[in-house]
Task: structure prediction
Amino acid sequence: MALTLDSRAAVREGRDTSSPLDAGAPAVVFNAGSGQALIVAAARSVSTSTAAFVIRHSSGFLQIALPQTRCESLLLPPLNPFDPPGSRMCVGVDAVRGTGTGISAADRATTARALTDPAAALGDFTRPGHLVPISVDPHDDTAWSTPAAIALDLVHRTGQPDGALFAELVGIADPTRMMTYAECVEFARHHALPLHTIE
Result:
């Protein structure tokens, strides 16, 4: 998988474009093969404002990509045991501490950070919840092009702890469909975010 930074997307002045997810800032990723547009943030440092931004510009369905070993250690069961093992959706969770109903941007950001906390254990989460973990097996070649694997790979490349909060971006002209590449360029430029394309 080749990730390339699109120079046509404006980047905040003085920002190091090689580390788009520094300080919890999101990045835009467009998969040229599938036509999918994602917004991705490092889960370990995601803030309430970043989670709210992702929710506002996406379908609102937030997922968190985690290594398979992490999901197994927290005993997060797959939603459908018959899904391919490379990239499996797990039952949604909420963090026990620091959350209310679990649905707010603040609560989902808290849950995302908790899921990547090395000290977290099974009892720190309730299920079903409002943040959906995706178990990614980095050694499974069939999973590399899935949105979860792409998001996790981007976070891993920046040196952040493994865990990527992500969602699909909705169209600007027509919010009933997903964002096009041209709209990704405009969106990234308008919000001063890095845009990565996958060839």
Observations:
- Residues 42 and 164 are 5 Å apart (CA to CA).
- Strands lie at 3-5, 27-31, 36-42, 63-67, 87-89, 93-95, 125-136, 164-168, 195-198.
- Residues 7-18 have pLDDT under 50 and may be disordered.
